[in-house]
Design goal:
four-stranded mixed sheet, binds glutathione, Glutathione S-transferase Yfyf (Class Pi), Chain A, domain 2, globular
Length: about 200
């Protein structure tokens, strides 16, 4: 198997953490800037987006949450849905919506440097703030070291770390002490520590 990923992508990070939590961290990774339209990525994903997981059969699985779904079917244990699947999935939905909103702000700046303050930019910002506030009010819980991180934890921590990475100086990001504590505990796990967002290496 081969995973196309970038070090900045929160979506790729969700897939990478999920693979590692399932004990599949030895899957070969191909560092790929999706914006460079690498032929191998385009062959795996017509949308030219990361993550894309190429199975040994040659079949590609794209979309972060579908990669998680595929993992659940192939390797049900340990489950990424945790003890309360409803809650894990619900929180993951809130976090993924905010990841979409945050990523949309970053991408839209490429064509409109003033996007952040535009009506649509402010709407996307509101989504991020509202999701962080909702997750902060009722944060997912991480068990002890032996417990697997569920999808709610994976998505919430991925969101928070992405916001810190991309919007470090933003004054509109709310204080989230409970999520900060969760992220700091999650960082004790190799799956989270080894996938912290960072700029892509210069080529
Ligand atoms: N819904 C997709 C989103 C993937 C996505 O947008 N990835 C970004 C990187 S953060 C990408 O590859 N963008 C390149 C492009 O949009 O052309 C998922 O969950 O995997």
């Amino acid at each position: 198997m081969r995973l196309f990923f970038s070090t900045t992508s929160p979506y790729a990070r969700v897939a990478r953490i999920a693979l590692a939590e399932k004990g599949l961290d030895t899957v070969e990774g191909t560092l790929t800037d999706p914006w460079h339209d690498a032929p191998a990525l385009l062959a795996a994903n017509p949308s030219a987006r990361v993550p894309a997981l190429l199975l040994d059969s040659g079949l590609p699985i794209t979309e972060s949450l579908l990669i998680v779904l595929w993992l659940e079917t192939q390797r049900p244990q340990p489950s990424l849905l945790g003890a309360q699947p409803d809650h894990a999935i619900s929180r993951a939905g809130v976090a993924m919506g905010a990841i979409d909103a945050a990523a949309a702000i970053i991408i839209s700046r490429r064509i409109d440097p003033g996007f952040d303050e535009s009506p649509l930019g402010l709407r996307r910002r509101r989504s991020v703030v509202a999701a962080l506030e909702r997750l902060e009010a009722d944060p997912p819980a991480l068990g002890d070291r032996d417990a697997t991180a569920d999808l709610g934890v994976i998505a919430a921590v991925t969101l928070l770390d992405y916001i810190r990475f991309r919007f470090a100086a933003a004054t509109w990001v709310p204080a989230t002490p409970r999520l900060d504590a969760l992220a700091s505990r999650a960082r004790e796990r190799p799956s989270f520590a080894s996938t912290l967002p960072r700029d892509m290496p210069k080529t």
